[in-house]
Amino acid sequence: MLASPSSAAAARALGRTRIKRLISSCGIEAWFVQDSTVPLISMEYAFTGGATQDPAQKAGVGHMVSGLLKEGSGDFDFKTFHQRLDRRAIELRFHVTHDHFRGALRTIEDNADEAFELLRIALTSPRFDAADVERIRATVLARLRRDSTDPSSLAHRRFLEVAFGDHPYARPTEGSLESVPKIEVADLKGYVRRVIAKDTLKIAVVGDVDPGVVCKLLDTTFGSLPSNAEAMPVAEVTAAKPPQQVFIRFDVPQTVVTFGGPAVRRSEPDFMPAYIVNHILGGGGLTSRLFREVREKRGLAYSVGERLVWLDHSAMFLGNSGTSADRAGETVDEIEKQVRHIAEEGPTQQELDDAKSYLKGSQLVAVNTSSKLARTLLQHQLDKLPIDYFEKQNAVIDRVTLEDAKRAAQRLWGQGLLTVIVGRYQKDAAQPITVPLGPAPPPGVDQ
């Protein structure tokens, strides 16, 4: 494993003077932090598009592309390409989210030229040889078959269907057992042509390298990409309005509960109050209300937590819990009770102060390696935050008042929950409806 900068080095990197905006001669822009702690270069980058650019009946195209870019490009077949990576300990990774096709590169300074050249070849000349395509397809299908018997995967998939109906966000990024066999080489090539282009590219680089060298590497790697993407437009969407409850009967030892609902977008003024109050309810690990009330006090669940998920065209909160079948009803009731309580009364001043203190202190932990820092800088760009946001973030947190937090809590949880239960479910009260897997109707979806 390559070494990474210490947390102290990461802390020094947070200053505005250390985060530079570089623009290469080809007009490629990157946020850059020069750090000489170790001779390592870490780069994270993203193209707008992601799984939303998959054809409607062929979900998983972008995911397959992410798995194939290292499987042979240019003059290098699968074996040769991997030999070039391995002999220099070069790390190239690609993955797809709903909104972005993302990648990462890590290499030592001495191997930078070869590392960036291999990335250029992967992005501009993927081979998509038949044998490689079928190998990756088989790997994807094997994982999907495994997930088809995993209650957590089933619950997450069904939740997205209920929340987003026929919007692209409802489709799993990795595709389905029905869609992946339909994907053809032409679909893979078409995805690359539509998505991988300079106009939507965001880049973050951290490492022991001169800014002038970074600019040359950026030009070499990305300069020959198409100027403009051909992405399909994606509609704005609001997650379905709570309360709704879906039950998928599944004979497994542990019942899984996935819950959520519409949330606050990253660009909205209420985002930070929502982020803080969400930390209090379910994002604070051992200190959250859900953990304390559901697991610690009552022993109802093996695990419980919740987080905010912000997307380019929507936002939601999303929580999960695992429990025994005979206590699933109690677990759902207690989660709903805690959600109602914080929606009606909000957090206490002490909870707010503790959450703010934790979030301010956790900044350095989030960037204590070069890779983490590069990933965070990239996320700030995708979230359209200013380059000096590291300096401003604590002040943004400090400005959140108790009234702000109460308002955010009411907005997040005042309508209740979308809940998907997978497993065996025993409850004396009204039973949730039982539904088959498959396309869900689009209740409450704004197109």
What characteristics describe this protein?
single chain; 447 residues; six-stranded mixed β-sheet; 19% strand; globular; disordered C terminus
Could you describe the 3D structure shown?
There is one protein chain. Helices cover 40% and strands 19% of the residues. α11 (328-345) packs across α15. The chain has helices at residues 7-12, 61-68, 78-87, 112-124, 130-147, 151-164, 185-195, 211-222, 271-283, 289-297, 328-345, 349-361, 370-382, 389-398, 402-413, and strands spanning 19-23, 29-34, 40-48, 91-96, 100-108, 202-207, 244-249, 254-262, 301-310, 315-324, 418-423, 433-434. Mean pLDDT is 91; it is low at 1-13 and 428-447. A 6-stranded mixed sheet has the order 1-2-6-3-5-4, with helices on both faces. It has a 6-stranded mixed sheet with strand order 9-10-8-11-7-12, with helices on both faces. The protein has 15 helices and 12 strands. With 447 residues, the protein is of the alpha+beta class.
Write the layout of secondary structure elements.
Elements: H1 7-12, E1 19-23, E2 29-34, E3 40-48, H2 61-68, H3 78-87, E4 91-96, E5 100-108, H4 112-124, H5 130-147, H6 151-164, H7 185-195, E6 202-207, H8 211-222, E7 244-249, E8 254-262, H9 271-283, H10 289-297, E9 301-310, E10 315-324, H11 328-345, H12 349-361, H13 370-382, H14 389-398, H15 402-413, E11 418-423, E12 433-434
Parallel strand pairs: 2-6, 7-11, 7-12
Antiparallel strand pairs: 1-2, 3-5, 3-6, 4-5, 8-10, 8-11, 9-10
Helix pairs in contact: 2-7, 4-8, 9-12, 9-15, 10-11, 11-15
